[in-house]
Amino acid sequence: MGLRKMNKLILGEKKEVNQGTYEVTNLIDSLTIKEDVKLYAFNQVSNEYFNLDKKSNLYYEKIDYLDKDIELNFILDNNSTLDMRYLIVNQGDNKVTLNIKCLGNNNHINLSIRVINKEASKINLEINGHILANTYDNVLIEDAKGLTNGQDVIKICPNIYADTSEVEANHLVTVGSYNPEELFYLMSKGINKEEAQKLLLKSFVKSIFNYYKDREVINFE
Q1: Residue 191 domain-assigned (yes or no)
Q2: Residue 44 domain-assigned (yes or no)
Q3: 57 domain-assigned
Q4: 3-class state of residue 106 by DSSP
Q5: Residue 10 lies in a domain
Q6: Which residues of 50-76 are buried (b: 16+ CB within 10 A; e: fewer)?
Q7: Which residues span the domain enclosing 94?
Q8: pLDDT of residue 5
Q9: Whole-angstrom Cα distance, residue 73 to residue 96?
Q10: N or C: which end of the chain has fewer CB within 10 A?
């Protein structure tokens, strides 16, 4: 695992990150988050395990060009926050498993995920949110959207396992193609169909980001 904080490289054997903003430069295995941490990861396609300590906050922007199955795990203790913005650009037949587990109380999880395929690919995204019994004041919001190109398959399965009634949990999942009304509007302004689709694709994937929103790191070809 490598993290870049400003111009300083955090050594690979470091498994705990405290206050700060970091760019992930190598594959992450497992990481403990303490205090307030912001992570930005581009094309770090790997299994990941995050442990959010008590009263810790993780803001995580992640873009993956996926070519294999991966599993991401987030474990929250007490009074912690996870805000994850995740873009999956898939090629091939792959699966992403995202596991969230609340061990304690007053945790807030917000997941904003966008999925697209390259060519005639197939992806299965499984989101598993676990809220344990005898916990309270946990919030889990899942917002996952897929944009198809007409020849691909996007499957999104949001699963919320809540063993307590003292929880706020909700998921929003949509999978669809380009909005014909939006395409018609752009084409009426003199934009050809291919360029109109690229504009809509950019809007779709960049709407969830802050750090990556204005960076040309996504290939829309």
Answers
A1: no
A2: yes
A3: yes
A4: coil
A5: yes
A6: bbbbeebbbbbbbbbebeeebebbbbb
A7: 3-178
A8: 58
A9: 11
A10: C
**9: Cβ–Cβ under 8 A, 6 or more apart, which residues?**
2, 3, 25
**Tokens standing for residue 147:** 């944009």
For the chain, 221 residues long, give each residue's pLDDT as a single digit of tens: 566 554 443 535 558 888 889 888 776 678 999 999 999 998 888 899 999 999 999 999 999 999 999 999 999 999 999 999 999 999 999 999 999 999 999 999 999 999 999 889 999 999 999 999 999 999 999 999 999 988 899 999 999 999 988 999 888 999 999 988 999 999 999 999 989 988 898 889 888 999 988 777 666 55
**Would you state the structure tokens that stand for residue 198, as one six-digit string?**
């690229």
φ and ψ of 205, to 5 deg: -85, -30
Please state the pTM of the whole predicted model.
0.91
Say how many domains are in the chain: 1
Give CA–CA dist 205/199, Å, rounded: 10
- Amino acid identity at 55: K
Residue type present at position 10: I
